[in-house]
Amino acid sequence: MKLAFQIARRYLFAKKSTNAINIISAISALGMCFGTLALILVLSVFNGFEGLVTSLYDTFNPDLKVTINEGKVFVPEEAKIQQIEELEGVKSVASVLEEIALLRYNDKTTPCRLKGVNAAFQKGSGVADTAMIRGKFILDKGGRNYAIVGLGIERALRIDVFNDFELLDIFMPKRTGKISNNPEEAFNRKTVSPIGTFSIQEEFDKDYIFVPIAVSQQLLNYQNGEVSQLEIAFEKNADAEKLQAKVKEILGGTFMVKNRYEQDEFLYKIMKTEKLAVFCILALILVVASFNIIGSLSMLVIEKTKDISILKAMGADSSLIRRIFLSEGFMLSFLGGLIGMIIAFVICFIQQKFKIIPLHGDSLLIDAYPVEMRVGDFLLTLLTIIIIALAASYFPAQKAARQSELALKTAD
Questions:
Q1: Interacting residues of 224 by C-beta distance below 8 A, sequence separation 6+
Q2: The whole model's pTM is what?
Q3: Which residue ranges make up each domain of the chain?
C-alpha cells in the first residue's frame, strides 16, 4: 500500500505531458474544494439557526412538563411535589394553570393564552431571567396583582407598562353560566396591572401573558387549587434523563412527564429532516465534482500506459496498479476537500468573532448570521468525500488494472 501511495503521489504532483490533464486535475480539486466549502458553511449556518431556535424554545419551555393523562386539570399532591423538590438537581417545581382568555386595555381587545403561575415559576423560568425587555417580572406585591405581557400583545393593545393608572381587564367565559342580555355577565372578570414585557419569538410574544395562578383559578372558578401542569426546572449540571425517570416513578402512570425534546418533538424532527435534506442536496455538488476526477484519472491511465507496462514487467500485479490509481483519485479529492474545510473553518471563525455578514431585517434577537461549527459535520463531510473519491476512482483504476492484464497477455 505504501508503494502504491508513493507512486500515486508522484503522479499527482508531477507535470503531465498533456496539459489538459493538469487543467482537469486542477478543476477536479477545485470542484471538491468549493463543494466542501459550501457544504460546511451551509451546515454551520443551519446549526446556528437551529441553536437559536432551540435556545428560544428552551427559554420558554421547562426542563420537564407534567400533565395529566385524562382531563385538563388536576390537584397536585403536596407530598409528591415535596419529593420532587428534594431530588438532587431539581431547582424548582412550579404550578401552572393555562387557559385561553380575552384581554381589554382601554378600548382595545385581543385574545391570549393566560398562564397563571406561582412564585416557584419565577425561580426556574428563563422568561424572568433573560426574556424581559421592559419593566419587571413581578406577579403580586402589596396585595396587588400584576401581569407580564408578550411583546405582540403589548403592541396589539398599546400597553404602557410604566403607566400605573391604566389597568388590564381579563375576561374568562363562565363555566356554568346562564344566557343573559348583557354579554359581560357571561364572563368572569379580573383586573391586573401590566408591569413588564417579555420577548422570545413571535409565537410566544403574540399569545402569552403571565399572571398569578390565583387570578387564573378565580377566573375559572377553581376552588381546590387545580392546575393544568407542573413545570420542573433543573440545576445547570443536572442529569436530565435520570431526573425524568425519577419524577415518573414518583408521580406514577397517571401523568405524562415530557422533557424539552418531547414537548416540541415535531419541531425538532422537522429541523433534523431539513438538515438531512440540505446535506443530501449539497452532497450532490461533490458528486458532480467527482465526474471531473473520473475524466482526469481516465486520461492519466491513457498517458501512463507505458508506465503500467513497465511496472507489470517488474512484477507488479493488477491489484497494485488498481491501488495506485485509487490512491491518486483519493489524494486528488482529499486535497481539494481539506483545503475547502480549512477555508470554511476560517470563514466561520471570522463570522463568529466579528459578525462580518449582517442579517438584515427588523430583528431584536440577532444582527448577523449565526454560525455554529460542529465536529460531527466536518467528520461526516470528510467521510462523504472519501466515499465519493473512492467511487469515482474505482472505474479508472479498474480500467488501468485490465489494461495491465491485457499488456501482460500481449507480451506472453
A1: 75
A2: 0.83
A3: 2-58+267-411, 63-261
